[in-house]
Structure formats: structure tokens, C-alpha cells
Structure to design on (174 residues):
């Protein structure tokens, strides 16, 4: 943890020196790697515990699937964000993310005890996701992309090519 803790110290020192108003500092990390050797959930639980002692404002647990379990152990189906929330949640807010396409999926994730949720790919697919939810236009929330949506959504060519060519990354339908 030496390097990440040094980065946190440098960021906090920079904020203290240059911020003229409150400035939120958090840490985003991926909790597990499929490769062995690589980061295990046990490593990340220890890491999250250490991060919770650093005076950060939040920890963001980055994963492709909020409800996805272990990348290494098929019998471990517990959400990585939920596992980290269980370890540090009384000390620091946890942000979860990953394939929460519909309001019901977001509500279900929120009910897991993880207090903050992020939408990433969902906002690329439906830039008005939050506005449509607030306006009770839930049936109008787009949850998939068509191969003809690039121009309407103003998605840059490089990102569009990645969306089309990385299987399963975005919900693209023909």
C-alpha cells in the first residue's frame, strides 16, 4: 500500500494548499483480478481497511457487475461492493457500480446497504436516465444501444468502435 498511500498524501496536501473551498477526495479501485497472481478480494479488503483510515471522503468499488461475485471463486457470489461495505461502511461511504441498467436494479443495489451508486455505461446509453426517472418516464429509459445510435447519442468514433467490438461491454442489439 506504500505507493497508493503516498499518492493520497500528495493529493491531500495539494488540496490543503490550493483548494479555496471544500474539495472531495476519494479513491476508486478494482477489487479483484482474475489473474493469479493478481489482486484478490482478500487483498482488497485489507486495502479498503487501510484506505478507510486515510481521511478520504469515499471509496469507489469499480466492477463490471455490481452483483458479480468473485472472478476467481465461482462459489463466492457476494457482490464485491457489498463485501467492502461490510468492512468499511461504518467509517467511509462506499460507491458501487456495474450494470445497473434500470431503476429497479438501482433500487435493489441500494437496498444491499451500499449507500452510493454510480451509473457509467448507463448514462452513455441513456444520457437522460436521471431526468426520465425524476419525471416518472421510466418506460422511456433506453437500456440498450442499436448499431445506428452513434450519431444521435454523439458518441465519438473511438469509443463507438470499442462499444461495438468489446463483447458484453455495452448492451448492443442488432
Amino acid at each position: 500500500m506504500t505507493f497508493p498511500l503516498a499518492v493520497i498524501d500528495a493529493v491531500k496536501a495539494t488540496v490543503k494548499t490550493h483548494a479555496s473551498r471544500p474539495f472531495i477526495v476519494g479513491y476508486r479501485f478494482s477489487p479483484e483480478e482474475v489473474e493469479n497472481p493478481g489482486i484478490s478480494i482478500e487483498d482488497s479488503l485489507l486495502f479498503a481497511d487501510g484506505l478507510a483510515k486515510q481521511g478520504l471522503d469515499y471509496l469507489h468499488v469499480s466492477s463490471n457487475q455490481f452483483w458479480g461475485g468473485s472472478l476467481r471463486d465461482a462459489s463466492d457470489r457476494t457482490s464485491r461492493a457489498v463485501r467492502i461495505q461490510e468492512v468499511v461502511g461504518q467509517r467511509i461511504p462506499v460507491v458501487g457500480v456495474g450494470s445497473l441498467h434500470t431503476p429497479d436494479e438501482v433500487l435493489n443495489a441500494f437496498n444491499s446497504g451500499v449507500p452510493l451508486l454510480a451509473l457509467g455505461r448507463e448514462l452513455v446509453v441513456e444520457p437522460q436516465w436521471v431526468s426520465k426517472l425524476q419525471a416518472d418516464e421510466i418506460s422511456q429509459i433506453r437500456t440498450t444501444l442499436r448499431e445506428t445510435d452513434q450519431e444521435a447519442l454523439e458518441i465519438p468514433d473511438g469509443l463507438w468502435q470499442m462499444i461495438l467490438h468489446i463483447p458484453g461491454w455495452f448492451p448492443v442489439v442488432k
Observations:
- Helices lie at 2-18, 41-51, 80-88, 103-110, 121-125, 129-134, 150-153, 157-165.
